[in-house]
Amino acid sequence: RPRGATALVQLEERKGRRLVRDFLATEGRRLRSQHLALLAQKLAADPFAKVKSLVGGMIARLQDEAAADTDHEGFCDKEMGKSTITRNKLSEDIDGLTAAVQEGKATILALAESAQSLMEGASELRRALGEAAELRRDEKAKNAQTLKEAQAAQRAISTARAVLKDFYDKALTATAFVQAPVTRRWGLNMGIKMGSEEWKALASPGAKRVDTGHKEGMQTFGEAYQGQQDKAEYGVLTLLEVIQSDFEGLEADTESAEVVSKKAFDEFSRESKKSIRVKEKKIEMDTADKTAAEEKLAQDSAELRTTQSELSAAERYHERLVPQCADQGMTFEERTKAREAEVESLTKALEMLSG
Questions:
Q1: Is there a contact between 91 and 307 (Cβ–Cβ < 8 Å)?
Q2: CA–CA separation, 351 and 16 (whole Å)
Q3: Are 315 and 86 in contact (CB under 8 A)?
Q4: Is residue 195 helix, strand or coil?
Q5: 254 — phi, psi (to 5°)?
Q6: Contact at 8 Å (CB) between 122 and 212?
Q7: Which residue, 96, 100, 184, 301, could crosslink 188 as a Cys pair with Cβ 3.0–4.6 Å?
């Protein structure tokens, strides 16, 4: 090639390199791109550098960065999303398990208090039933003794009344003559005692029998002398009758009281035993429920500890993700646009070199 032509070509090449260098420097400032600014500085420092190769390499590098950034953004979106979902789920589980543990503790406490109260109630009923049974035995024995004494007293009074009545009945027929105000037989007026020798001497001559006085069962004449017999008989027998009636009333009242007392005790005993059975069954149920609640509490507590450990691990993983995935001054979209602008400028630079 002619020497002049070669010089012209070299001049055009230098001019083209300078234009590309200035273009890249200007684009670097406009886009605030370190990549373009550094490339422009390199071209200025090395006039013999292969411009097309450098620009093409920069385009390839930016495209590789874009691909890597896209992959990293996908990874961050996926992992940050999973981390958020996992941490939220674990936090909800912990809230639920914490509530379950608290509820379980409250349930166990309530069941324990219920069982204790029921045991105390059953114990009190047994004590009251024992006392009532002892009182009932004493009352029954006392009533039996009262009935025995009342019946014995009635028999004794009946016997006494029979004896007295027999006595008074015999007294009514006792031999006696009532002294009349009329003149008596002359022998009696003389003070001669019937049946005496003087009395016999006064008998009619030749009489086969001499009246010696009244014998039991013989007819009497006039009113028999009874003295205060009627009043005595009426007073004593009436008093005995009243006393016997009192003992009869005591017997009836005692029998009635015994029936009422036995019925009341039987009712109290039946209801108390029924209540004790109900309480014992409820204690059994509460105890079983408490055992089940304790087992569930143990499971919930263990699961709570495990879930808390999982949340701690998830939090640590999230903390490691944040520096990797948090936007460092620019968002992924902003970085993508900036990179595309850089590639576009570099492509124009190549076109300038090819022009």
A1: no
A2: 11
A3: no
A4: coil
A5: -65, -45
A6: no
A7: 184
Sign for the pseudo-dihedral over CA of 213, 218, 223, 226? positive
Q: Which H helix or E strand runs over 11? A: helix 3-31
Where are the extended beta strands (E) located within the chain?
none
**Residue 242, token pair as written in the block:** 């009243």
User: 137, exposed or middle or buried, with CB in 10 Å at 0-12, 13-18, 19+?
Assistant: exposed
> Can you tell me which residue has the tokens 């990797």?
324
How many contiguous H segments (helices) and E segments (strands) does the chain have? 7, 0
Of 140, 137, 95, 106, which Cα lies nearest the Cα of 258? Answer: 140
Half-sphere exposure of 149 (CA within 13 A, CB side): 9
State pTM to two decimals: 0.57
Q: Where do we find the tokens 């990179």?
A: 339
Q: Cα(117)–Cα(113) distance, rounded to whole angstroms?
A: 6
1: Cα separation from own chain's centroid: 112
Q: What is the largest CA-CA distance in the chain?
A: 235
Other CB atoms within 10 A of residue 237 CB: 15
Identify the band that residue 281 occupies on the pLDDT scale cut at 50, 70 and 90.
Answer: very high
Structural domains of the chain, ranges and CATH numbers in brackets = 50-177+224-354 (1.10.287.950)
Q: Are 43 and 21 in contact (CB under 8 A)?
A: yes
Q: Where does residue 334 rank: exposed (0-12), middle (13-18), buried (19+ CB within 10 A)?
A: exposed
140 CB neighbour count, 10 Å cutoff: 14
